[in-house]
Amino acid sequence: MAGSDDPAAIFRSLTSRFSGRLDVKLTSGPDDAPLLKASGQSFAMLHGGELVVRLHPARCAELVDAGKGRLFVHEGQPQPDWLVVEGLDAAEWKGHTMEALGFAKG
Question: Which residue from 4, 32, 78, 96 has the least number of CB within 10 angstroms?
Answer without folding.
Answer: 32
